[in-house]
Design goal:
alpha+beta, 9-stranded mixed β-sheet, 10 helices, flat
């Protein structure tokens, strides 16, 4: 595929297009398109406005309930052409990139509508699963400019470079000059990250950046890039140091480490492997940990399933013994090292037994789970139906589910309900500000 620059937007921000997959290929010329005027009825689960056109739901980005809009319709998708009449919940987006950048979906609605919509996603999902009587608490809000993780798309063409996020459902990269959701420390380093990106020997790649407690953990993911040598390596290391990197990796291989990157979970310092999963913001993570610890209070033996490198396992180990399980062996090893170092350093922390195991393919069986006082599970967006089916038969008194997908959480919650568990409360946490995602913590009790 080839890189090709496209036109500049109205603010003079460069946009680059890279055809990277069939999903991003131009639409077929013979695909029928209709131009219609329609009223937007609601916001769908993906953050797009929904209009009923000839009895069919048409999803159109950048529209809000009540908008009367001119839309080009192709299949079930719409493209906004013009707002004729703005709905009452429509608001001015605070970011100059909104409408081009696909990093945010919901900057164009009022704060009151935004907050109620996030909670309504959880309410609706549980109601559809037959759990409409659940106590759903008010959403815990987090600061807007707090995202400590970002995966930037990068494209280089001759002397020009674009580093930013893709447009919605497009391979066009919006070259960021501002961002309302990134942590200020990452935002301030965008020029240095562009300089670093220039030293990476690939024309298009992803640059994953995580703000750790002692600098940036930077991972370049590029299919065609090879390990640099000589002057190329020196230039890359110098650029990484200038960007405030603690570690620089290429396709999972560490190229330079100025200090082990560290994330602290309740006083336990973990060095996560390159590209490992972490919660999106420190504030969101703190809210989730507090909710999990509150629900698990009094438990002395806890299983932490889909544990990652210890977001919940390490804090829980301050008052209980913990069995942590995750498919990512490197994350499990990082957790084990961190707990051992914390114990040797004099921190009061109980043992953590950690195991690398794919719980989707090989869920822990019911008999193994019966040994615990409480179970925490924080699976991928697809949920954990097979593992939850085993939990439902275990009889463990307290089960705590953490999820960023209300639909799959509701499905898994229904499995637990059929096993005799009561979903006593759910708390949404808005750590994905302006995105359609919403995190939640649900507490199940048996007996």
């Amino acid at each position: 595929m080839t890189d090709r620059p496209t036109q500049r937007d109205g603010d003079g921000n460069r946009e680059f297009q890279l055809a990277t997959s069939a999903q991003h290929m131009p639409k077929k010329q013979d695909e029928a398109t209709r131009r219609v005027t329609a009223r937007i009825e609601e916001i769908g689960s993906g953050g797009d406005g929904v209009a009923l056109i000839d009895g069919a739901r048409v999803f159109t980005p950048l529209t809000a309930p009540g908008d009367l809009a001119v839309i080009d319709v192709r299949g079930g998708r719409g493209e906004l052409i013009e707002i004729i009449e703005a709905g009452s919940v429509r608001a001015e987006a605070p970011c100059r990139h909104f409408g081009h950048c696909g990093g945010c979906a919901l900057q164009h609605v009022t704060s009151d509508f935004y907050r109620s919509w996030k909670r309504a996603r959880v309410v609706g999902a549980l109601a559809r699963a037959g759990l409409g009587e659940t106590d759903i608490r008010q959403t815990i809000e987090t600061p807007t400019a707090a995202r400590r993780r970002a995966v930037f798309a990068v494209t280089k063409l001759q002397d020009e470079i674009a580093l930013g996020f893709h447009e919605h459902r497009s391979s066009t990269i919006v070259d960021l000059t501002d961002c309302r959701i990134l942590h200020p420390e990452i935002l301030a380093r965008l020029p240095a990250l562009r300089s670093l990106a220039r030293t990476i020997g690939a024309r298009s790649f992803d640059l994953s950046v995580t703000l750790c407690d002692n600098g940036l953990d930077i991972l370049a993911i590029a299919k065609s890039a090879s390990r640099p040598r000589g002057a190329g390596m020196s230039a890359m290391i110098d650029a990484a140091r200038a960007a405030g990197a603690a570690r620089l990796s290429l396709n999972g291989e560490t190229l330079a480490q100025f200090a082990p990157p560290v994330i602290h979970f309740d006083g336990v310092g973990v060095t996560p492997p390159p590209g490992s999963f972490l919660q999106a913001s420190r504030e969101g993570e703190a809210a989730l940990i507090a909710l999990v610890k509150e629900a698990a209070a009094g438990a002395k033996k806890i299983a932490d399933l889909f544990s990652g490198c210890g977001t919940f396992a390490a804090p829980l180990a301050r008052s209980a013994t913990v069995y942590a399980v995750d498919a990512d062996r490197a994350s499990i090893e990082a957790l084990s090292r961190a707990v051992g170092e914390a114990q040797r350093g004099g921190l009061r922390i109980n043992p953590v037994r950690a195991e690398a195991r794919d719980l989707i393919e090989r869920p822990l069986p019911t008999n193994d789970l019966k040994a615990f006082d409480a179970i925490v599970f924080d699976p991928p967006r697809a949920g954990a139906a097979a593992q939850v089916a085993e939990i439902a038969k275990s009889g463990v008194k307290i089960v705590i589910g953490v999820s960023c997908n209300p639909a799959t959480f509701a499905r898994d919650a229904a499995l637990l309900a059929r096993g005799g568990y009561t979903l006593s409360q759910v708390t949404p946490v808005d750590q994905f500000v302006y995105a359609a995602h919403v995190e939640l913590v649900g507490v199940f009790r048996k007996g």
